[in-house]
Amino acid sequence: MPPTLVLIRHAEGLHNVDNNIPDPELSELGRRQCGDLRENIMARIPKELDVGLIIVSPMRRTIETAMLVFHDLISKGVPIQAHAGWQENSAQPCDTGSPIPQLVAEFPLVDFSHVDPVFPDKTSPAGAKYRHTRQAIVARGQAALHDLYSRPEKVIVVVSHSGFLRVGVAGFWFFKADYRIFDFEEREDASSPYRLLRWDSTAAGGMGLSKEHPVPLGDGLPDDEGTEHEGSA
């Protein structure tokens, strides 16, 4: 049976003030938001959510969010792994990661061994699958879900980013430090796309902070030819 996914948007980062900051850390408000999120979500663990794995985008703000919220789980041995497939969409400085050796030194509890060696490149031919286009981002979302679909854990937490979660993976808005819980839809066959079913209890986010209406995957993203794609709903 595929795992249940807890998809979390990171708390507020310094880039919310200045998006020219490369790979920003959390702001002081963001750290307070992590405290609120920890109190909310840890009340569901392990009663509702038997978490067996934590995955993070290899960006400072997502790693810091995971470390602050799930410190108790990590200290008890729940693995935390970085995965480039869950990074944010754009190639702006704030959405471009730091070199992995630097992150390894800063976050020794995080397993970076699974990070694509091309990270943090998003613009060269080698980093083409991380381009800021509708085709690349939707494909990356499917690849990220494919990686999780057959994993043995009952519940997997993913700490990622607003844009990628909204238009690449889930089709819903995520406020800062808010989360939604999903199960995989049953697939008709091996060629069927991966789709998620949201838990009703997180319709407005587990913190109650997020917009409820859905967003089409790929909405508002530029096509490879440079035109912008508009969703139908």
UniProtKB/TrEMBL annotation:
SMART domains membership: PGAM (SM00855)
One GO cellular component term, please give it.
cytoplasm
The Swiss-Prot or TrEMBL record annotates one GO molecular function as:
phosphatase activity
Name recorded for this polypeptide: Histidine phosphatase superfamily
Provide the residue span(s) of the region labelled Disordered: 207-233
Q: Which organism is it from?
A: Lasiosphaeria ovina
Instruction: Kindly give the InterPro entries that the UniProt entry links to this protein.
Output: His_Pase_superF_clade-1, His_PPase_superfam, PGM_Phosphatase
